[in-house]
Amino acid sequence: MPNPGKILGHVWNKTEDTLKVQLQDNDDGKLTKRAILSRLGRAYNPLGIISPTMIEVKRIYRDSCEEQKNWNAEFSPALTRQWNNWTKQLRDIEVPRSLMPAGETKAIELHLFTQASALACSTVAIAVVDQDSRKSKGLIASKSRLAKRNTSIPRLELVSGQMGANLARNLTRALKRLPIQGREKPWEMDERQGDANREGSRWSSERSRIVA
């Protein structure tokens, strides 16, 4: 990449006008729990452009903890292979820097989607930009977290719904000067959240209130 720049801690490819996250190599090359946490702490990712792929490395770290080795013990061969595969995939991830090409913007629609599985809960915000000459869309921000083990899918859907609702409110405040149009609640959630609502527990009721 010729003459890369930096924006918000991301590597900026000026030729293609794209952003990517660069993970620094560990000093001694050993893969341990301590080293992995140190390297992940350097992966500055405020916009969440690599949130989906971060789930994989969080799972790798959780599996390493379940091996019950000390902080400086090297990873097993299986976890080492998984880590190496993840770092290779990370190098190929690039996203466009600009959501709005040059020209007058008539309107911006904000769409949020949430999803959950036995592995993770996630939410993503997409902007659809309407201009005189074209319509374009792109990633604004995303969030993800590992799912707690032995939790029902409907409950995890409520967790992802809460994540989406919080992200939507934060983005609405941050982008209030832009011509954003659309529904009052722009998030799309799985119908299985209704199953959690029917549980009637205080936990479910509180999260349903936040989403609503």
List keywords for this structure.
5-stranded mixed β-sheet, 6 helices, 212 residues, Ubiquitin-like (UB roll), alpha+beta
Commentary on this structure:
This protein is α+β, with helices and mostly antiparallel strands. It has 2 domains: 6-95; 101-181, Ubiquitin-like (UB roll) (Roll). Helices cover 36% and strands 25% of the residues. It has 6 helices and 9 strands, in the order βββαααββββαββαα. The strands form 2 sheets. Strands 5, 6, 7, 8 and 9 form a 5-stranded mixed sheet that branches. Strands 1-2-3-4 form a 4-stranded antiparallel sheet, with no helix packed on it. Strand 5 (105-116) and strand 6 (120-131) form a beta hairpin. Helix 2 (51-66) packs antiparallel against helix 3. The chain is flat. The N and C termini lie far apart (46 Å).
Write the layout of secondary structure elements.
Elements: E1 5-7, E2 10-13, E3 18-20, H1 33-41, H2 51-66, H3 77-91, E4 95-96, E5 105-116, E6 120-131, E7 135-146, H4 153-174, E8 180-181, E9 187-188, H5 193-197, H6 202-211
Parallel strand pairs: 5-8, 5-9
Antiparallel strand pairs: 1-2, 2-3, 3-4, 5-6, 6-7
